[in-house]
Amino acid sequence: MFDPEGPRLRELVVQSLSSVERGYDLLAPKFDHTPFRTPDSVLEATASALRRAGPFGAGLDLCCGTGAGVGVLRQVCEASVTGVDFSAGMLEVARERTVPSGPSGPSGQSGAFGTRGGPDSSGPPVGWVRADARVLPFGPVFDLVVSFGAFGHFLPRERPGLFAQVHSVLRPGGRFVFPVVAPPRPGSPMYGMLLGFDTVMRVRNAVWRPPFVMYYRAFRFGEMWRELTWAGFRVEFWPLPEFGRRRDGSPKVRLVVAARAGT
Fold first, then answer.
1. Of all helices (H) and strands (E), which one includes residue 147?
2. What is the pTM of this model?
3. Do the Cβ atoms of 165 and 258 come closer than 8 Å?
C-alpha cells in the first residue's frame, strides 16, 4: 500500500495515536506517498469535468492537505485559488510545492499535479489559510469549492454544519464539487476491509484520547443528498466515464455537484 518513500510502521502508529491535526502534521512530508492521497486519475477526471462546466472565478480547496486539489482549481479558475486546512504541516508542504523552481514546475516536477504532489506554477495566484473547515473565515467570495477525500474526518453530526459553512462562502450560483466512489457491495472484500478499518478506529477512539476521526463508511448517498439540500444546495450527480460502470449500470465514480441557489 505504501511506496518506499512513504511512512514506516512506527511512524504510522505514532500518528494514529495523536490527534487528527497532530497526526497530519507528522504525516505531511510523506503524505503523497500513501494511499490516503487522492489518485491523480480522480483529480484529472474531476478537472476534465469542471473544464467543460467552467471557467470559474475564485476557487477554494476545502481541507486541501498538500495541495493536490489546488492543481485542479488552477486549471479551471481564472481569478484566484485558496487552499484551507487545519494542519500547519500539510500547508507547509503545499506552499513548498507551489514555488516555481524551473521550467518543469515546482521541485522539478512536471504535470498539473506533479509526480506525486501539488500543483504546478501556472494558473491564477494561490493563497493558503490555516483554519477549521467547520468555521471558515470567509464571506461569500468563491465561485467553486472542491474537496477530495476529507469527509471521513467529520462525524455524521458535524456534516450539516460543514455543508452550511461551504454554502456561506459561495457566491449565488457557486458550486460545491467533490468526487464519490460507489460504495462496495456488502460481503465484498473491499466492504470487509473498510468495515474492519472503521471498527479498529472506533475501538481506538473508545480507549484512547485524543480521538482520531477517520472513518471510510460514514458517508451514504441518501444522507449526503438530504444534508446538502438542507444546507440550501441543488444537488446533481455527474458520472465520471473514465472509471466505467458497475454491473447494474451505475457509475463507479461520480461527481457530486451542489449549486448554491440565487442570482
1. strand 142-147
2. 0.83
3. no
H or E element, residue 205? helix 189-207
Query: Which has more confidence, 168 or 192?
Result: 168
Helix, strand or coil, per DSSP, at residue 204: helix
Tell me the C-alpha distance between 67 and 50, whole Å: 17
23-71, pLDDT tens digit by residue? Answer: 777 776 777 777 778 899 999 999 999 999 989 999 999 999 999 999 9
Total residues belonging to the chain: 263
Residue 62 in contact with residue 142, Cβ under 8 Å?
A: no
Integer angstrom CA distances of residue 137 from 85, 125, 143, 186: 12, 19, 16, 40
Task: Note if the bond before 210 is cis, omega within 30 degrees.
Answer: yes
Strand order in the sheet with 253-260: 126-130, 77-85, 56-62, 142-147, 170-181, 253-260, 233-239
Amino acid identity for residue 93 in this structure: V
